[in-house]
Amino acid sequence: MGDRVINWKQNLNVLWFGTFVAGIGFSSISPFIALFIGQLGDYNATQTSIYSGMAFAAPFLVKMIVSPLWGILADKYGRKPMLLRASLGMAIVIGAMSLVTSAWQLIVLRLLQGVFSGFISNANALVAAETPKSHVGHASGKLATGNVSGTLIGPMIGGLIADTFGYRYTFLITGLAMMVAFILSIFFVHENFKPVPHEKGEKQPHFLSGIPTKQILFGMFLTTLFIQATNNSISPILSLYVKQLDPTSTNIALTAGIIQAINGVAMISVAPFFGRLGDKIGSHQILKFGLVFSMGVFFLTTFVQNVWQLGALRFLIGISDAALLPTVQAILAKYSPHDRISQVFSWNQSFQAAGNVTGPMIGSAVVLIGGYRGVFIATTILAGINLFLVRKNIKSIETDKN
């Protein structure tokens, strides 16, 4: 038993680093993607805008499609092989982005980055499968901070590397960090994987078919989509909103990056607490609190008058994220059948990617109608819809003895 305790904690620490770097890999390009593409060719403003949008969305669109396939293979052959495939693939592809000479080369490599997704979902599945049930909430909470914090802090890290060394070094350094995650996973991640035996010729069950808790699981998928959409709705307009609040500032990009990163700092700090609390009082209670809290914070953000107020409220959003995303992971871990746990987490990653794409689209569209402040009103409404869906879909959790 002692060895198992050591192993699950070791797995958790190594995979936290890997998911953190993977999150950075998907987001570090965002502060300067348009500027970098502008250096790759003689493109006009319209072409640069189109290519930037394509490069930004490419990995998320592909990840949304291919994630379930990697989940099926993980449940068949093990989660660790999928972790190694994803980390090595991303290390090579992201590193290769430092060598591109045209916008289309960058877009193709970003598409390949989406193909080599699956590190995060399989890290979640492996931790859920290998962690003692009494610690699943805490472990899932800590692991979830890796990906989300990497995604949120990534723009600031990418911007700092780009300003200090140049745009191409952002890709090179991120690729090297992902290679470190690959090497650590080889030697320090352990899995007691035993595939569930199937009769020869037996067909793979359809998505969620035959799972008694499928309503809960699908409800969590939708919750993940809405959380990501609300979190990312501000992304396209954050720097412009900061400029509106502080028009005399000469460090708009850095200020916007810091404000975005504050969210991740708050989440890293608070998520383990909510994980332990969820193990005691029930994950569904933490989930409802997080949604109500986020609604209040998003609504208050509508009335900010300066960047300090915006930063403080984004910190509070990080607290709500600490209550939401890790709790979803814990609920998925608890209510997923062991033989399909990787598929469940992979589908959740597909919904997460969908939220990453739809959130910025919603934010950009709302700005045209209601201005920057209108984005936060729309986000409050989305969080309210999410709360309604959660209350409807997790009634069975409330009657379950945690």
UniProtKB/TrEMBL annotation:
Keyword field: Cell membrane, Membrane, Transmembrane, Transmembrane helix, Transport
Domain of life: Bacteria
Ranges that cross the membrane: 12-38, 50-74, 86-107, 169-190, 250-274, 286-308, 365-389
One GO cellular component, as annotated: plasma membrane
UniProt subcellular location: Cell membrane
Topology relative to the membrane: Multi-pass membrane protein
Keyword Cell membrane among UniProt keywords: yes
Major facilitator superfamily (MFS) profile domain residues: 11-395
Matching Pfam families: MFS_1, Sugar_tr
InterPro entries from the UniProt entry: MFS (IPR011701), MFS_dom (IPR020846), MFS_sugar_transport-like (IPR005828), MFS_trans_sf (IPR036259), Tet-R_TetA/multi-R_MdtG-like (IPR001958)
One annotated GO molecular function: transmembrane transporter activity
UniProt key word Transcription regulation: no
Name this protein carries in UniProt: Multidrug resistance efflux pump
Organism annotation: Apilactobacillus kunkeei
Gene: pmrB
